Amino acid sequence: MAKPQADEFDLLILGSGSTAFAAALRARELGKTALMTEERTIGGTCVNRGCLPSKNLIEAAKLLYDARAPRYPGIGPTAPALDFQGLIGQKDELVRAYRAKKYESLLGDGVRLERGHVAFLDDRTIEIGGKRFRGDRVLIATGSRPVLPPIDGLDDVPFLTSDLLTSDEPMELTGLPPSLLILGGGYIALELGQMFQRLGTNVTILERGEELLARGYEPEVGPTIRGILEQDDIRVVTSAQVTGVRTDGDGIVAAVATRGGARELRAARLLVATGRRPNTDAIGIEKAGAEVGPRGQIRVDRHLRTNVPHVFAAGDVVVGEHGSQMATPVGSQDGAIAAHNAFRADLREVDHRVVPRVIFTDPPIAVVGLTEEQAIAAGHPCWCNTLPISLVPRAGAIRDTRGIVKMVADAETHEVLGVTMIGHGAAEVIHEAAMGLRFRATLLDFIGLLHVYPTMAEALKIVAISRFKDPERLSCCAE
Ligand SMILES: Cc1cc2nc3c(=O)[nH]c(=O)nc-3n(C[C@H](O)[C@H](O)[C@H](O)COP(=O)(O)OP(=O)(O)OC[C@H]3O[C@@H](n4cnc5c(N)ncnc54)[C@H](O)[C@@H]3O)c2cc1C
Q1: Mean pLDDT, the chain, as a whole number?
Q2: Given this model, what pLDDT does residue 1 score?
Q3: pLDDT tens across 83-100, in order?
Q4: Whose CA is nearest to atom 20 of ligand 1?
Q5: CA 288, CA 124: separation in Å to the nearest integer?
Q6: What is the per-residue pLDDT for 479?
Q7: How far is the CA of 21 from the centre of ligand 1 (A)?
Q8: With 70 as the cut, is the pLDDT of residue 138 above it?
Q9: Which residue out of 328, 337, 350 has the highest number of ligand 1 atoms within 8 Å of its CB and is therefore the one to mutate?
Q10: For the purposes of burial, counting CB atoms within 10 Å of the CB of 207, is it exposed (0-12), middle (13-18) or buried (19 or more)?
Q11: What is the pTM of this model?
């Protein structure tokens, strides 16, 4: 293959998020040139307005909360002063430093970035900022954006979206609202809702389903996390259909149909967190000829190839394809796989069988593998059990007994098929479960592994033991 001209690249990448970067770096390792494209901020959602800023501020809010409500008798509450602008300032600085190190500094050496809105002219040509570029292979990694539900009046009121933690962009929230109505009860609503409540905002979450996280999670999760959020004084309204919104003075009023009848709820600000959709509708996809699915996602095979053989897609834009989820590690792994498959004959397949996921509430909700319902639907004779986290010695020792652990296993082979944990440290513990699932560990493997005492990871051992014995009647560390 002849070396491409200046406006030609081996790999054209639409987007510059974590998926795009993983692909560009892999292309470079394979001796190829790559062009990334960006209309917002280099690095995409995760570093600028997603994972990094949200986890930074969630931890800050937890520090405040723990100081105001220490859970140990003998430690009195204190009320640390909050300088919200200062908090946002450190978040922006952190984001800038991280972006510089993990994204900007990686450009060069065959990897370039072009700024502006990108669209296909044909399946090998893109246009961006009035310039045209050709590529031998193309990767679509344009990520996702907030979905706006069709609600009367929404076009006429100011509102925030899941992009509110962005830095250096106009939609960044720089003032702490006294009250906040959140439309939606998914992971972003729960994470940001608890964060704002702990920073001092009065938060109301409006979820249209009968329970929080009713789809895709174990049925125990919704009521458990709801109880925990309500302990934080967050108001959670389920079966809530928002029928209209309007401004009222300097606030927002939402008309809501609930089980108890029609209500009007008022707050200083409105956050619309009703999900995200792939950015595939403004990139001239029809000119590339790549097929788009019902959720707006790009259709790909297990090699992340679209129906156009030299056009690939990965990251948030392929949500749902072969079990793909909107999460940075999924996009990063798949971006590298797409770049590999674009240039190599030894094709790699995506592997979404074991995808650990965490909702970073306090305590976190961590899940991996199948739920009980999914295991039964997949034909497994199913054993499962749910235990309160209070059975884990460490939870008692550190006086944080909020949460549950549930394990799903095949009743005949004892292979562990899924784990859900809500509890202190669950975001770390879930990796033991994930590694177990990856290597098809059985209940006896979880029981036989010596666990450090006292740790939250013992939750997995104890719930596995409950298949055979009453976990209430165990001595410390005993099997
Ligand atoms: C509030 C929040 C918290 C999150 N927390 C976590 C978390 O804790 N852990 C986790 O794993 N995931 C988290 N996520 C999800 C994670 O951020 C995404 O899954 C991930 O960033 C997707 O990466 P991507 O490269 O596929 O897309 P993106 O990072 O969105 O990158 C796509 C880029 O393409 C650009 N683009 C789109 N269209 C065009 C166009 N036509 N022209 C030019 N540029 C274009 C966009 O501006 C964007 O920068 C969070 C998301 C949000 C919103």
Answers
A1: 96
A2: 52
A3: 999 999 999 999 999 999
A4: 328
A5: 7
A6: 74
A7: 12
A8: yes
A9: 328
A10: buried
A11: 0.96
**Is the CB of residue 153 less than 8 Å from the CB of residue 264?**
no
Tokens 């499962």 belong to residue = 384
Q: What is the pLDDT of residues 19-73, one digit of tens each?
A: 999 999 999 999 999 999 999 999 999 999 999 999 999 999 999 999 999 999 9
User: CA angle 82-198-173, nearest 5°?
Assistant: 70
**Both structure tokens of 69:** 């409500």
Position in ligand 1 atom list of the atom nearest CA 19: 25
Strand order in the sheet with 261-267: 241-248, 251-258, 261-267
Question: What residue spans of 178-317 are helical by DSSP H?
Answer: 187-199, 221-231, 285-288
CB of 45 sitting under 6 A from ligand 1: yes
As given in the structure block, the two tokens for residue 207 are 């979820």
Residue holding tokens 């007994």? 401
Angle at 245 between CA 45 and CA 156, to 5 degrees: 70
Our answer on whether the CB atom of 207 is closer than 6 Å to any ligand 1 atom is no
Residue 253's closest CA among 241, 238, 243, 264?
264
Q: Give the pLDDT score at 474.
A: 84
CA of 315 to the centre of ligand 1 (A): 8
Contact present, 123 and 310 (Cβ < 8 Å): yes
Q: Which atom of ligand 1 is nearest to the CA of 326?
A: 19
Task: State whether residue 267 is helix, strand or coil.
Answer: strand
Given a contact cutoff of 8 angstroms between Cβ atoms, the answer to whether 193 and 205 are in contact is yes
**Closest C-alpha residue for ligand 1 atom 12:** 327
The mean pLDDT of 202-219, rounded to a whole number, is: 96
Report which protein residue has its CA nearest ligand 1's atom 24.
143
Please tell me if the CB atom of residue 17 comes closer than 6 angstroms to any atom of ligand 1. Answer: yes
pLDDT at 153: 97
Amino acid identity, position 226: R
Could you tell me if 137 and 10 are in contact, meaning their C-beta atoms sit under 8 angstroms apart?
yes
Of 69, 74, 4, nearest to 33 (Cα)? 4
Do residues 371 and 383 lie in contact, with contact meaning Cβ atoms separated by under 8 Å? no
d(CA 171, CA 159): 10
Per-residue pLDDT at 473: 86
| 326 in contact with ligand 1, CB cutoff 6 A | yes
162 pocket-lining for ligand 1 (C-beta < 6 Å): yes
Ligand 1: residue whose CA is nearest its atom 38 = 142
Helices (H) and strands (E) in the chain, counts: 13, 22
The Å distance, Cα 22 to ligand 1 centre, comes to 13
Give me the residue label for tokens 């979450």.
205
pLDDT classification of 210: cutoffs 50, 70, 90: very high
